[in-house]
Amino acid sequence: MRLAVIDGRATLLTTEGRLDVESASDGRFPAEVTGLFDRWSEFRAWAADYRPAPATDALPAPDTLGPVSPRPAQILAVGLNYVDHAAESGFAVPEAPIVFTKFASSITGPFGPLTLTGDSVDWEVEMVAVIGIGGRDIAAADAFDHIAGFTVGQDYSDRDVQFLGAPAQFSLGKSFPGFAPVGPVLVSPDEMPAPEQTVLECTVDGELMQSAPLSDLIFSVPDLIARLSAVVTLMPGDLIFTGTPPGVGFGMTPRRYLRRGEVVRASISGIGAIEQVCV
User: Fold this and answer.
1) Could you list the residue range(s) of the whole structural domain that residue 78 is in?
2) Structural domain tally of the chain?
3) Whole-model pTM?
4) Helical H runs in the chain?
């Protein structure tokens, strides 16, 4: 399944073309994607009748695409989940997932302006898991049954705010408006490439900053689902930012942060790309 939100309406991208979910289902399912997550098992079974469009197909116009989960009850984000990113940040490899939140008001669509909040705004491309079927104490072996799909996310971070005080305040520094763009589409787990073939990349003005396969994760997605759901009740539509690979500006010498006018592009194999212009 490849699902997009086009002009606010849930739309399947299929080999037959774009199918408005509400119209194609004769009103059985709502146009708003949030309503689909509440009935994900039923919707997934219905959508299985349609063959997903290839990942290489052209997407709708950028200004028509919205976030694939615009109002998640929870956003759980995992820090230092790549060995080399932990090293460049000056931290030891974690023995357990380092978890923080991005507040829901930071969610935005996959394309558009990024308002810089200061001189230390950094990029962090991440694969984001979207929960379809919630629950607690989910076994790692069952994790993919609970995931609606995957999408591209940016965990933008104002480093000055993030590291203001001791201990650091991760959540505030990562939750300014527009600091959590997600999209351009939601791709079901069965349509994703193997982890070693799922490459995350981020460029700034065309310069490659980050590139790593998903297989480099310290804690895999099923492991994260199991560990998180042992504590938190996961809910339909929740977002899990799974971590960023090395190559962030904070880890460079000298440090390198975003400047007005620069274009940030984040992409993941099998999903697509999102893009922001710094203003």
Assistant:
1) 63-278
2) 1
3) 0.97
4) 21-24, 33-37, 40-47, 83-88, 143-146, 159-162, 170-173, 221-229
